[in-house]
Amino acid sequence: MEVTKGGQPVLRGVDLSVADGELVAIVGPSGSGKTTLLRAAAGLDPVSGGEVRIGGIDVTTADTKARNVAMVFQANVLYPFRDVAGNVGFPLELEHRPKPEIAARVQAEGRALHLERLMERDPSELSAGHQQLVQIARALVRVPSVFLMDEPLARLDALLRMEMRGELRLVQRGYGVTTLYVTNDPGEAMAVCDRLAVLVEGEIVQIGPPQDVYARPATREVAELTGDVSTMLFGVTADEPGYWLDHDGFRIRVWAQALTPYVGLDVVVGLRPEHLAPDPGGLRGVIERVVPHGPYVMTDCRIGSEIVAVRTEGAFGVRGDAVGLTVVGGHVFDPVDGRTAASWG
Protein backbone atom coordinates (compact mmCIF):
# COMPACT_ATOMS: atom_id res chain seq x y z
CA MET A 1 0.00 0.00 0.00
CA GLU A 2 1.18 3.50 -0.84
CA VAL A 3 -0.09 6.89 0.32
CA THR A 4 1.07 10.21 -1.10
CA LYS A 5 0.37 13.66 0.33
CA GLY A 6 1.26 16.90 -1.43
CA GLY A 7 3.17 14.93 -4.02
CA GLN A 8 5.40 13.35 -1.35
CA PRO A 9 5.22 9.64 -0.46
CA VAL A 10 4.18 9.05 3.15
CA LEU A 11 3.74 5.27 2.99
CA ARG A 12 6.01 3.39 0.60
CA GLY A 13 4.83 -0.07 -0.33
CA VAL A 14 3.62 -1.09 3.13
CA ASP A 15 2.77 -4.81 3.08
CA LEU A 16 1.04 -5.76 6.33
CA SER A 17 -1.28 -8.72 6.94
CA VAL A 18 -3.01 -8.99 10.31
CA ALA A 19 -4.66 -12.28 11.34
CA ASP A 20 -8.19 -12.42 12.71
CA GLY A 21 -8.15 -11.41 16.36
CA GLU A 22 -4.49 -10.42 16.29
CA LEU A 23 -3.14 -7.21 17.82
CA VAL A 24 -0.25 -5.67 15.91
CA ALA A 25 1.48 -2.72 17.57
CA ILE A 26 3.26 -0.18 15.38
CA VAL A 27 6.17 1.92 16.58
CA GLY A 28 8.35 4.37 14.71
CA PRO A 29 9.83 7.85 14.86
CA SER A 30 7.69 10.97 14.49
CA GLY A 31 6.69 11.46 10.86
CA SER A 32 7.23 7.83 9.89
CA GLY A 33 3.61 7.41 8.75
CA LYS A 34 2.05 5.58 11.71
CA THR A 35 -1.13 7.66 11.91
CA THR A 36 -1.40 7.80 8.12
CA LEU A 37 -1.39 3.99 8.05
CA LEU A 38 -4.37 3.92 10.43
CA ARG A 39 -6.20 6.64 8.50
CA ALA A 40 -5.68 4.76 5.23
CA ALA A 41 -7.05 1.57 6.81
CA ALA A 42 -10.08 3.55 8.01
CA GLY A 43 -10.70 5.18 4.64
CA LEU A 44 -9.92 8.70 5.89
CA ASP A 45 -6.83 9.05 3.66
CA PRO A 46 -6.94 7.87 0.02
CA VAL A 47 -4.57 5.11 -1.07
CA SER A 48 -2.44 5.98 -4.11
CA GLY A 49 -1.20 2.44 -4.70
CA GLY A 50 -2.05 -1.06 -3.58
CA GLU A 51 -5.20 -2.05 -1.73
CA VAL A 52 -6.83 -2.35 1.69
CA ARG A 53 -8.63 -5.59 2.55
CA ILE A 54 -10.76 -6.29 5.61
CA GLY A 55 -11.97 -9.85 6.09
CA GLY A 56 -10.65 -10.67 2.63
CA ILE A 57 -12.83 -8.01 1.00
CA ASP A 58 -11.26 -5.17 -0.98
CA VAL A 59 -12.39 -1.94 0.70
CA THR A 60 -9.83 0.37 -0.91
CA THR A 61 -12.49 2.65 -2.37
CA ALA A 62 -15.16 2.04 0.29
CA ASP A 63 -16.02 4.83 2.71
CA THR A 64 -15.37 4.57 6.43
CA LYS A 65 -18.90 3.49 7.39
CA ALA A 66 -18.78 0.54 5.00
CA ARG A 67 -15.55 -0.77 6.60
CA ASN A 68 -16.97 -1.40 10.10
CA VAL A 69 -13.88 -0.04 11.83
CA ALA A 70 -13.67 1.69 15.19
CA MET A 71 -11.08 4.39 15.73
CA VAL A 72 -9.50 5.87 18.82
CA PHE A 73 -7.17 8.79 18.22
CA GLN A 74 -5.23 11.01 20.61
CA ALA A 75 -7.63 13.92 20.34
CA ASN A 76 -10.70 13.38 22.51
CA VAL A 77 -13.85 13.73 20.44
CA LEU A 78 -16.79 13.35 22.81
CA TYR A 79 -20.34 14.68 22.53
CA PRO A 80 -20.47 17.52 25.08
CA PHE A 81 -24.24 17.39 25.62
CA ARG A 82 -24.31 13.69 26.46
CA ASP A 83 -23.14 12.11 29.70
CA VAL A 84 -20.58 9.31 29.72
CA ALA A 85 -23.19 6.56 29.31
CA GLY A 86 -24.74 8.46 26.40
CA ASN A 87 -21.35 8.83 24.70
CA VAL A 88 -20.48 5.17 25.11
CA GLY A 89 -23.85 3.93 23.89
CA PHE A 90 -24.26 6.37 21.00
CA PRO A 91 -22.92 3.99 18.26
CA LEU A 92 -25.51 1.41 19.33
CA GLU A 93 -28.27 4.02 19.18
CA LEU A 94 -27.30 4.74 15.59
CA GLU A 95 -27.75 1.02 14.88
CA HIS A 96 -31.22 1.19 16.51
CA ARG A 97 -30.37 -1.49 19.08
CA PRO A 98 -32.96 -2.16 21.81
CA LYS A 99 -32.53 0.06 24.86
CA PRO A 100 -32.02 -2.88 27.30
CA GLU A 101 -29.21 -4.21 25.09
CA ILE A 102 -27.59 -0.76 24.91
CA ALA A 103 -27.77 -0.37 28.69
CA ALA A 104 -26.25 -3.82 29.30
CA ARG A 105 -23.38 -3.33 26.88
CA VAL A 106 -22.62 0.17 28.14
CA GLN A 107 -22.53 -1.19 31.68
CA ALA A 108 -20.17 -3.98 30.62
CA GLU A 109 -17.74 -1.55 28.97
CA GLY A 110 -17.92 0.70 32.00
CA ARG A 111 -16.85 -2.16 34.25
CA ALA A 112 -14.05 -3.23 31.90
CA LEU A 113 -12.54 0.27 31.79
CA HIS A 114 -13.34 1.33 35.37
CA LEU A 115 -15.90 3.97 34.37
CA GLU A 116 -18.88 2.70 36.41
CA ARG A 117 -18.93 5.67 38.81
CA LEU A 118 -18.61 8.23 36.02
CA MET A 119 -21.54 7.20 33.83
CA GLU A 120 -23.72 10.17 34.73
CA ARG A 121 -21.03 12.81 34.39
CA ASP A 122 -20.59 15.21 31.48
CA PRO A 123 -17.33 15.01 29.49
CA SER A 124 -16.32 18.46 30.78
CA GLU A 125 -16.25 17.06 34.32
CA LEU A 126 -13.71 14.36 33.42
CA SER A 127 -9.93 14.40 33.39
CA ALA A 128 -8.21 14.09 30.03
CA GLY A 129 -7.34 10.49 30.87
CA HIS A 130 -10.92 9.53 31.67
CA GLN A 131 -12.13 11.27 28.53
CA GLN A 132 -9.76 9.04 26.59
CA LEU A 133 -11.14 5.94 28.32
CA VAL A 134 -14.68 6.98 27.37
CA GLN A 135 -13.56 7.23 23.76
CA ILE A 136 -12.05 3.73 23.99
CA ALA A 137 -15.26 2.35 25.53
CA ARG A 138 -17.31 3.92 22.75
CA ALA A 139 -15.13 2.17 20.17
CA LEU A 140 -15.24 -1.18 21.96
CA VAL A 141 -19.00 -1.24 22.48
CA ARG A 142 -19.62 -1.61 18.73
CA VAL A 143 -17.59 -4.85 18.43
CA PRO A 144 -16.30 -3.75 15.01
CA SER A 145 -14.32 -5.80 12.48
CA VAL A 146 -11.16 -3.79 13.16
CA PHE A 147 -9.92 -1.56 16.01
CA LEU A 148 -7.59 1.27 14.99
CA MET A 149 -5.92 2.85 18.02
CA ASP A 150 -3.53 5.81 17.84
CA GLU A 151 -1.82 6.40 21.20
CA PRO A 152 -4.99 5.39 23.08
CA LEU A 153 -3.36 5.63 26.52
CA ALA A 154 -1.16 8.68 25.95
CA ARG A 155 -3.29 11.05 28.04
CA LEU A 156 -3.53 8.78 31.08
CA ASP A 157 -1.33 9.19 34.14
CA ALA A 158 1.49 6.66 34.55
CA LEU A 159 -0.28 4.38 37.05
CA LEU A 160 -3.56 4.24 35.14
CA ARG A 161 -1.68 3.75 31.89
CA MET A 162 0.07 0.66 33.25
CA GLU A 163 -3.23 -0.74 34.53
CA MET A 164 -5.09 -0.06 31.29
CA ARG A 165 -2.49 -1.91 29.22
CA GLY A 166 -3.65 -5.15 30.77
CA GLU A 167 -7.32 -4.23 30.70
CA LEU A 168 -7.22 -3.27 27.02
CA ARG A 169 -5.47 -6.51 26.15
CA LEU A 170 -8.02 -8.58 28.05
CA VAL A 171 -10.95 -6.78 26.40
CA GLN A 172 -9.39 -7.06 22.93
CA ARG A 173 -8.79 -10.78 23.39
CA GLY A 174 -12.28 -11.24 24.78
CA TYR A 175 -13.86 -9.71 21.70
CA GLY A 176 -11.30 -11.28 19.35
CA VAL A 177 -11.20 -8.12 17.24
CA THR A 178 -8.31 -7.51 14.85
CA THR A 179 -6.40 -4.46 16.08
CA LEU A 180 -3.75 -2.02 14.85
CA TYR A 181 -2.26 -0.17 17.81
CA VAL A 182 0.08 2.79 17.37
CA THR A 183 2.24 3.97 20.26
CA ASN A 184 5.53 5.77 20.85
CA ASP A 185 6.14 3.74 24.02
CA PRO A 186 8.04 0.51 23.17
CA GLY A 187 7.28 -0.97 26.58
CA GLU A 188 3.58 -0.42 26.05
CA ALA A 189 3.77 -1.86 22.53
CA MET A 190 5.50 -5.03 23.69
CA ALA A 191 3.11 -5.42 26.64
CA VAL A 192 -0.06 -5.46 24.53
CA CYS A 193 0.84 -6.90 21.12
CA ASP A 194 1.01 -10.28 19.45
CA ARG A 195 3.43 -8.87 16.87
CA LEU A 196 5.44 -5.67 16.74
CA ALA A 197 5.94 -3.71 13.51
CA VAL A 198 8.60 -1.00 13.20
CA LEU A 199 7.77 1.72 10.66
CA VAL A 200 10.56 3.99 9.41
CA GLU A 201 10.13 6.59 6.65
CA GLY A 202 6.91 4.99 5.44
CA GLU A 203 8.26 1.43 5.28
CA ILE A 204 7.93 -1.52 7.65
CA VAL A 205 11.56 -2.43 8.31
CA GLN A 206 10.87 -5.29 10.74
CA ILE A 207 7.87 -7.19 12.08
CA GLY A 208 7.65 -10.18 14.38
CA PRO A 209 6.92 -11.30 17.93
CA PRO A 210 7.94 -8.44 20.24
CA GLN A 211 10.57 -10.45 22.10
CA ASP A 212 12.23 -11.39 18.78
CA VAL A 213 12.30 -7.81 17.48
CA TYR A 214 13.75 -6.63 20.79
CA ALA A 215 16.40 -9.36 21.00
CA ARG A 216 17.31 -9.41 17.29
CA PRO A 217 16.71 -5.93 15.83
CA ALA A 218 17.31 -5.67 12.10
CA THR A 219 19.02 -2.27 12.37
CA ARG A 220 20.44 0.16 14.87
CA GLU A 221 17.35 2.33 14.47
CA VAL A 222 15.06 -0.59 15.29
CA ALA A 223 17.13 -1.27 18.42
CA GLU A 224 16.82 2.36 19.50
CA LEU A 225 13.07 2.43 18.83
CA THR A 226 12.35 -0.70 20.85
CA GLY A 227 14.19 0.13 24.07
CA ASP A 228 17.17 1.76 25.75
CA VAL A 229 20.44 1.10 23.95
CA SER A 230 23.87 2.69 24.42
CA THR A 231 26.44 2.61 21.62
CA MET A 232 30.24 2.40 21.59
CA LEU A 233 32.91 1.82 18.97
CA PHE A 234 34.79 -1.49 19.11
CA GLY A 235 37.47 -2.86 16.80
CA VAL A 236 37.06 -6.33 15.29
CA THR A 237 39.92 -8.85 15.38
CA ALA A 238 39.99 -12.55 14.58
CA ASP A 239 41.87 -15.66 15.66
CA GLU A 240 41.49 -19.32 14.71
CA PRO A 241 38.43 -20.06 16.93
CA GLY A 242 36.47 -16.93 16.17
CA TYR A 243 36.26 -13.16 16.62
CA TRP A 244 36.95 -10.54 19.26
CA LEU A 245 35.52 -7.07 19.87
CA ASP A 246 38.21 -4.82 21.36
CA HIS A 247 37.92 -1.56 23.26
CA ASP A 248 40.80 0.00 25.18
CA GLY A 249 42.34 -3.32 26.21
CA PHE A 250 39.00 -5.02 26.99
CA ARG A 251 37.95 -7.92 24.73
CA ILE A 252 34.60 -9.63 24.09
CA ARG A 253 34.48 -13.03 22.40
CA VAL A 254 31.67 -13.15 19.79
CA TRP A 255 31.03 -16.31 17.79
CA ALA A 256 29.53 -14.79 14.63
CA GLN A 257 30.74 -15.54 11.11
CA ALA A 258 28.96 -12.35 10.00
CA LEU A 259 31.86 -10.36 11.51
CA THR A 260 34.32 -11.60 8.86
CA PRO A 261 33.99 -8.48 6.61
CA TYR A 262 34.70 -6.21 9.62
CA VAL A 263 38.04 -7.69 10.73
CA GLY A 264 40.49 -4.81 11.15
CA LEU A 265 37.68 -2.24 11.19
CA ASP A 266 35.61 -0.45 13.81
CA VAL A 267 31.97 -1.35 14.35
CA VAL A 268 29.20 0.14 16.48
CA VAL A 269 28.25 -2.06 19.42
CA GLY A 270 24.79 -1.54 20.93
CA LEU A 271 24.42 -2.37 24.61
CA ARG A 272 21.11 -2.54 26.43
CA PRO A 273 21.06 -2.10 30.24
CA GLU A 274 20.75 -5.87 30.72
CA HIS A 275 23.84 -6.47 28.56
CA LEU A 276 26.17 -5.00 31.20
CA ALA A 277 27.08 -6.16 34.70
CA PRO A 278 29.56 -4.99 37.35
CA ASP A 279 32.97 -6.69 37.06
CA PRO A 280 36.27 -5.33 38.46
CA GLY A 281 38.14 -6.74 35.46
CA GLY A 282 35.85 -5.29 32.80
CA LEU A 283 35.52 -2.02 30.91
CA ARG A 284 36.72 0.88 33.07
CA GLY A 285 34.11 3.53 33.77
CA VAL A 286 32.94 6.17 36.21
CA ILE A 287 29.43 6.34 37.67
CA GLU A 288 27.57 9.47 36.58
CA ARG A 289 24.10 8.82 38.01
CA VAL A 290 22.22 6.22 40.08
CA VAL A 291 18.41 6.07 39.76
CA PRO A 292 16.26 3.52 41.67
CA HIS A 293 13.38 2.05 39.63
CA GLY A 294 11.36 -0.04 42.06
CA PRO A 295 12.77 -3.59 41.96
CA TYR A 296 15.94 -2.57 40.08
CA VAL A 297 18.48 0.24 39.85
CA MET A 298 19.61 2.04 36.69
CA THR A 299 23.20 3.30 36.77
CA ASP A 300 24.67 5.57 34.08
CA CYS A 301 28.42 5.05 33.65
CA ARG A 302 30.84 7.06 31.54
CA ILE A 303 33.33 5.00 29.54
CA GLY A 304 35.65 7.43 27.78
CA SER A 305 33.30 9.87 26.07
CA GLU A 306 30.31 7.50 26.03
CA ILE A 307 27.51 6.99 28.57
CA VAL A 308 26.14 3.47 29.07
CA ALA A 309 23.19 2.41 31.23
CA VAL A 310 23.42 -0.61 33.52
CA ARG A 311 20.42 -2.35 35.15
CA THR A 312 21.06 -4.26 38.37
CA GLU A 313 19.01 -5.48 41.33
CA GLY A 314 20.86 -3.14 43.67
CA ALA A 315 23.27 -0.19 43.54
CA PHE A 316 26.94 -1.06 42.96
CA GLY A 317 28.36 2.40 43.66
CA VAL A 318 27.68 6.12 43.90
CA ARG A 319 28.35 9.08 41.63
CA GLY A 320 32.08 9.49 40.99
CA ASP A 321 33.06 5.89 41.77
CA ALA A 322 35.43 4.13 39.35
CA VAL A 323 33.90 0.79 38.34
CA GLY A 324 34.45 -2.10 35.96
CA LEU A 325 31.74 -3.50 33.67
CA THR A 326 31.58 -6.78 31.83
CA VAL A 327 29.56 -7.26 28.62
CA VAL A 328 27.25 -10.30 28.52
CA GLY A 329 25.38 -9.55 25.28
CA GLY A 330 24.79 -6.92 22.63
CA HIS A 331 24.35 -6.05 18.98
CA VAL A 332 26.96 -5.25 16.32
CA PHE A 333 25.83 -2.60 13.83
CA ASP A 334 27.40 -1.76 10.49
CA PRO A 335 29.02 1.68 10.97
CA VAL A 336 27.84 2.87 7.54
CA ASP A 337 24.27 1.69 6.97
CA GLY A 338 23.31 0.71 10.54
CA ARG A 339 22.15 -2.83 9.72
CA THR A 340 22.69 -5.44 12.40
CA ALA A 341 25.65 -7.72 11.67
CA ALA A 342 25.36 -9.85 14.81
CA SER A 343 23.42 -10.17 18.07
CA TRP A 344 24.41 -12.27 21.02
CA GLY A 345 23.46 -12.86 24.64
Question: Would you mind describing this structure in some detail?
Answer:
This protein has helices at 34-42, 64-67, 84-94, 99-112, 128-140, 158-175, 186-192, 210-215, 220-225, and strands at 3-5, 8-11, 23-27, 53-54, 57-58, 69-72, 146-150, 178-182, 195-200, 203-208, 230-238, 243-247, 250-254, 266-271, 276-293, 296-303, 306-312, 322-327, 330-333, 340-344. It is an alpha+beta fold. It has 2 domains: 3-217, P-loop containing nucleotide triphosphate hydrolases (Rossmann fold); 228-344, Beta Barrel (OB fold (Dihydrolipoamide Acetyltransferase, E2P)), CATH 2.40.50. The strands form 5 sheets. It has a 6-stranded mixed beta sheet, with helices on both faces. A 6-stranded antiparallel beta sheet has the order 13-12-11-14-19-20, with no helix packed on it. 36% of the residues are buried. The model has no long low-confidence stretch (mean pLDDT 92).
